[in-house]
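Morning. Coffee machine broken again, so started the prediction first thing and wrote up yesterday's gels while waiting. Chain of 96 residues, entered below exactly as on the submission form.
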Amino acid sequence: MAQERDVDVDRILAITFDDFNGFLAETDAEQPCEACNSTEEWDVWVDDGMPQLTQSTLYRTPENGILYFNTMCRSCGNTRLFNAQFVSDYIRSRKK
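Came back before lunch.
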């Protein structure tokens, strides 16, 4: 059964590049690219020290959406999405 979760957008928007980069390192998320097998570093889109977010609308409830942080393979452009609420919850639990 699907679980409803409260999304704290302000907490998500406060995540810095260093916070997100720490999440990637701690969770060992920067594995080789599944598309091209490159082991180069992944790019993170950043604006003024803050990682950029992508919003995906939901088909059945277009007024709702899911926020994601993105990384992109430098070799082929493959893009990975990290659920922003999950990242935020993880970072918050590590700072306690």
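The longest helix spans residues 84-95. Going to sketch it on the whiteboard this afternoon.
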